[in-house]
Design a protein that fits this description.
The protein contains 17 helices and eight strands. It is of the alpha+beta class and 427 residues long. The longest helix is centred in the C-terminal third of the chain and has 22 residues. The protein is globular and about 70 Å long.
Length: 427
Amino acid sequence: MNILKEVLKHQVYPAMGCTEPVSVALCAAYAAAELEETAVQGHFRLDPGTYKNGCGVRIPNTDGEKGNLLAAAMGMLIAKPDLQMEILSGADAELLQRAKELVAQKKVCLEVAPEQQGFYIEATLQDKNGNKTICVISGSHTNVTYLSKNQTVLKDSKIHEEKTDCHAFKEALKKATLADLITWADNADGEDLTYIKKGVEMNLKAAEMGQALQKVGFYIKELVRKKLLHMDLITSTKILTACAADARMDGQAVPVMSSGESGNQGVVTILVPWKVGKEMDVSEEKILRSIALSHLLNGYVKVFTGELAPICGCAIAAGVGATAAIVYQQRGGNVPAMTLAINNIISDIGGMLCDGAKSGCALKVVSSADAAIRSAFMGINDYGITEVEGFVGRSAEETIQNLGNISTVGMRAVDPMIVGIMQEKMK
């Protein structure tokens, strides 16, 4: 198994809009595509993390509307699962109005499924003739594990004991060492590098679109204009990544290349090493290989913290990938230097909470970009936090595993508490 190719296939793909509500729409589309008539009613169950991430983020092609519920209704009406994570590109003004009517008439409803700890979306739809379909996406944003129509099972991974490619590569990734990840990045072939470059171009385009918005990127530029910040490598990287995140969280109809199945993680994982490498006159091939390492490390962190963790993935998991990529550009596969950089960024921002996707994610992207560059350049110069401090381990792998334990065990009550706060506000 070529792990880099599996990561690029399953976790690095174009996505228009925040990936959680988009995945809700995709699940609805899979179920709707099996009906004989247009779906007229839908019930959805979401794991707490997916529910949390879709509450406050704007949806593409909706003129600024927010939420999982509307995304679900749109997916029901689009009914084109072949669009995958660009499913909302199939919407227009007429479809949006029909989706809003379904929501207003309470024909679409959703609830939290608190017993589901991993990524989980369940859509139950009906058409006007009473035909009923059920679709479950679980384990990853595009992984259909169950599909049925009128009690006839069309797909059930559990019954057939299928070990999906998605789960197989994650198990292999979980057993990897930092040295393994470096070797896989070193061995990226031309096809891999071409695909990675495509992601760079997509995310730069999103950043360009975000320049027109008066959001986080704009205000960092204002700090420069007022001479409260200098326009240097770190500041320009923060502006670039903030503008890309601003565009996504504003619901602009522009796709980005994701990483770890997250668009904002793709922004950090890709654009931070790209910007730094270009500014430091690193060859393009080496920059692209460093981004391959960034994708691998982002995925590696998430197999320990979980797909949708209580901690911020776009800051921490993607930041780990970005900081290691910068070290790779300057010192190649130097494991000790890379370990110090990873320890530095986890020690710095390892406790940052995820309170769902929203405009504020751009602030966390900015913090991640800043921390990634600082942490890398300390590591490059052989300085970093060691195992004598806090939850930092004796290796990068151990530090990441410690972070995973804190996220999955120590912070188990965080997501339910955040979801409770959100639901209370929605009342």
